[in-house]
Write a structure and sequence with these properties.
The complex is a heterodimer. Chain A contains nine helices and seven strands; from the N terminus they run E-H-H-E-H-E-H-E-H-E-E-E-H-H-H-H. Chain A is α/β, with parallel strands linked by helices. Chain A has one domain: Aconitase, domain 4 (Alpha-Beta Barrel), CATH 3.20.19.10. In chain A, helix 3 packs across helix 4 (101-110). Chain B is an alpha/beta fold. Chain B has three domains: 5-160, Aconitase, domain 3; 164-249 and 273-282, Aconitase, Domain 2; 285-457, 2-Layer Sandwich (Aconitase, domain 3). Chain B has a five-stranded parallel β-sheet with strand order 5-4-3-6-7. Classes of the chains: A alpha/beta, B alpha/beta.
Amino acid sequence: MSRILSVSGHGIPLRGNDIDTDRIMPARYLKVVSFEGLEKHVFEDDRKTNRGPHPFGDMRYQDASVLVVNSNFGCGSSREHAPQGLARFGIKAMIGESFSEIFLGNCSVLGLPCFTADHDTIEKLQSLIEHSPETAVTCDVASGVITAGALTFTASMPAPVRDAFVQGKWDPTMMLLDKFDEVRSIGQRLPYVSGF
Amino acid sequence: MADTLFHKVWNAHRVRVLPSGQTQLFIGLHLIHEVTSPQAFDMIRQHGWKVAFPERTVATIDHIVPTSSQRRPFLDVMAEEMTVSLERNCREFGIKLYLPDSMEQGIVHVIGPQLGLTQPGMTIACGDSHTSTHGAFGAIAMGIGTSQVRDVLASQCLAVEPLKVRRIDVNGRLSAGVYAKDVILTIIRRLGVQGGVGFAYEYGGTTLDAMSMDERMTICNMSIEGGARAGYVNPDETTFAYLKGRKFAPAGAAWDKAVAWWRSMASDTNATYDDRVTLDAPSIEPTVTWGINPGQSVGVSERIPANADPEALAYMGFEAKAPIRGTKIDVAFIGSCTNGRISDIEEAAKIVKGHKVARHVKALMVPGSRVVAQEAEKRGLHQIFIDAGFEWRGAGCSMCLAMNPDKLEGRQVCASSSNRNFKGRQGSPTGRTLLMSPAMVAAAAIAGEVADVREMLEAVPA
């Protein structure tokens, strides 16, 4: 599995707190048996109902790979279709004030680093990208250093998740299967597994 | 050492610390449904993996199932394809599946407890954020995504990080017309939709002690709406009484051993918590959301806050400082994993009995499972709803997330006993949802507008 050491590319700013996964990927697009093509439906309803242009429909951000959001991004439903759609749109990393727990777990397993920083820093980065969409945003996973034009700051990420990216161990299935005898023995020790 | 249930369960299921520093956690019960599992099975097949413990996974269909006619093949081609896919996957990997042709079918978070699969001291995972429901039994139950469903299928484990624990005490008696739904909406209003991020919520206090399992499930169900991935109540006599005799509950000599182990897993009285919050039950009134997240709510006698979020007001078409009571509704929906259980139907029936649904309102009553529907029909409750003008439907998730034909149209306003009032949640990109208790939905259906159920209860003989 590949190590994820750094992500760089154009940014896409998406303002607003508590943006839920129903908005990222409306439920009608969950009626599928594969994740292919979901990028077409990312924020589909928001894009239609927004009073102004939505960043995901804005030509200036169409090749963006770093999504910059505010707080509690990805709350609500556990649907992996949301981060799958974002990843297929081209998003390779996210920087935000905070992320919902389940969304963060889904992103980690997909190899999408999510960094957090304080409100003022995020606002600065969003404004910078809105003003100069051509700015390259670079995220160094190990150090958390984010660079965008003249703006440089250190963002954070839970250490185990960061280490998993840096060591190329973010897709956990092989690790979980690695010491399967230990899994069996835990199973045997649990009274409800052995029938009390 | 004094400890919380969360830590006891976590420690009992911790396989090891992974090289990354995450915990490898054994999952005791894995529940799957048609929406979040097909891609997981594909990944298992692509890698040539097996399902490690097929007997520890149980499947049903709930999200896409139609509630008008459940005869196969379903009219919706994609719904049929997803069902066929789940049937094929379960057959290939030896997993028990409950379809609508089985009496056991229903919303995954309703049937797990109903079958006695959900038990204290377990770790439970499901590709669905409302998995927190099962915490009502003193289990650590978490929603996961599809790649993690793959991980649990392949290894019966998850790579996760521990949560902090916040104890939430609710004390005192709830007033008539105030229900578990109002308690959890009040908790989320007070702590915020982000307040629980990084936490498991442990609910307790005299109000929770006095609650039935159905009520505790309503509370735990919406933990995720407060940002908490898991929520739980310590197991007690109410828990054990509920479980006794259920299909998959321990029986005979194993029952006593099970109860002893379950008791031992409860939080110790002198356990320490990362945070504590206390609420006063008598001060809670019937609660209604006015906005686009479940934290944006007011008591039915209150007005929408003066500083209400402008984005939410614009979407809802509401004004700051306007009363919520009297808001006209178009649709009334009773059901979902939050409030689709027999006691929810009973409470709503008390309000509905002898009344008619307002002429402009479409009203749906969707039982959470076939067993719930059967029980209601046995007691004649279904007739109360039908006589009043409700549509009595088959079991499923229905209009909670509108993945089946039950959807709002245009800007309709729905009084809903479900869990999310997100933009577009109920199937129309401009549809509007007001979350409330099933009894409050019943009251709104009759009045044709948001009403105070307490006034209607006064007319009901005790």
